[in-house]
Write a structure and sequence with these properties.
With 361 residues, the chain is α/β, with parallel strands linked by helices. It has one domain: TIM Barrel. It has a seven-stranded parallel β-sheet. It has a two-stranded parallel sheet with strand order 1-13. Strand 8, helix 9 and strand 9 form a beta-alpha-beta unit. The chain is globular, with a radius of gyration of 20 Å. The relative contact order is 0.14.
Length: 361
């Protein structure tokens, strides 16, 4: 069974030869992993960790496979641009050193102080015609042995980077035209951008991933009514776009979104990530919804992977993976999908070694 077959079998609730696995990590973590394992390339690292999915933005979400930028001159789109989505929104990420390691940080939301629709309209919104997809198949060719995942889309979270979480949520309450304008403007761009990608290479792409944190540690960030008004219409557009090209759709949302899961299933979400164990019990979620939606994640990063011993990691992987893999429907991944610089490298290696050990059927 090849990597793509392994993943698709799991997503469709068949039993593959073993549980498929996925990784994303910051560039600092990727560098440390390569050094520790004596590897040079991303492909070598994915193969060593027995990863089945290739994220088109790269392991580090900044150095992957992207269309060629042909738009107006912009320092955020250098010749080496490789899919950094913040460039779309004219946001320059900053590398910040902390006591726990390096992190990416964003500037202050540029539309936080906007007072009129005219100010929103004047923002330098991206145009999908700035991107040439004609060589994307050729660029994906080296990764055809993997299950290819197109990531970077958002129908809520990225809008908070422009407007600010507080301002956007107030807009939803008191000036809905602001919220709808920003959310729809972003969704229109993403829909057209990924539609162009899928028209060119949809048969090579197996999963379309959205990143939209809709939960806090203990509850939804938005009421179900607000989710229906502001999130669902654009989310459904992306789901339908993926399914039009026979591509599975993954929704990433940190936090406790259990009350939303039946609606996500109804809408057509195929894969839910990351089943953050600090917020939801992965085993309970599997028992309730595991026949209707594929789960990815479930291994605690806040506690076990970042703070535990390698033996504690193996014990937790055994506990979670052996339950979630039952009857298919599980992709092995940590409970926060982007591994950060504060995690001991030996723990990450132990995580994926244990995933292989307990992922067999």
């Amino acid at each position: 069974m090849n990597r793509r077959e392994r993943v698709i079998n799991a997503v469709e609730h068949h039993i593959p030869d073993r549980v498929p696995m996925h990784i994303n990590a910051t560039k600092w973590v990727v560098k440390k992993l390569k050094t520790e394992l004596g590897l040079s390339t991303d492909k070598e690292l994915l193969e060593r960790l027995c990863i089945d999915i290739y994220d088109m933005r790269g392991i580090d979400l900044h150095s992957g496979t992207a269309p060629r930028y042909i738009g107006p001159e912009n320092p955020l789109f250098p010749a080496t641009w490789a899919g950094d989505i913040m460039s779309f929104w004219n946001l320059k990420e900053m590398e910040t050193a902390t006591a726990s390691g390096y992190v990416w940080e964003l500037p202050l939301p540029p539309l936080a102080n906007a007072q009129s629709i005219q100010e929103l309209q004047a923002y330098p919104w991206p145009d999908p015609n700035w991107f040439d997809f004609s060589t994307i198949r050729q660029r994906l060719e080296p990764w055809k042995d993997f299950c290819i995942l197109a990531s970077g889309c958002s129908v809520f979270q990225h809008a908070t980077f422009l407007r600010g979480m507080d301002h956007l949520m107030m807009d939803m309450c008191i000036q809905p035209e602001f919220a709808h304008y920003i959310l729809d403007k972003m969704a229109d761009f993403y829909y057209d951008y990924y539609h162009k990608m899928f028209r060119e290479a949809g048969d090579m792409i197996s999963i379309f991933a959205l990143a939209d944190d809709l939960g806090a540690q203990n509850a939804l960030l938005l009421s179900p009514e607000m989710i229906e008004e502001y999130i669902v219409p654009n989310l459904k557009r992306m789901i339908d776009l993926a399914h039009k090209y026979n591509i599975k759709i993954l929704l990433h949302s940190c936090g406790n979104i259990e009350t939303l899961i039946p609606r996500l299933i109804e809408l057509g979400i195929d894969i839910l990530d990351p089943i953050q164990p600090e917020c939801m019990d992965p085993i309970a979620i599997k028992k309730k919804y595991g026949e209707k939606i594929c789960l990815r994640g479930g291994i605690s990063v806040q506690q076990t992977v970042s703070k535990g011993t390698t033996q504690e990691i193996e014990t937790e992987v055994k506990r979670i993976a052996c339950e979630l893999k039952q009857n298919g429907g599980y992709i092995f991944s940590p409970g926060h999908p982007v591994l950060q610089d504060d995690i001991p490298i030996k723990n990450i290696i132990a995580l994926y070694d244990a995933g292989m050990k307990y992922g067999n059927y």
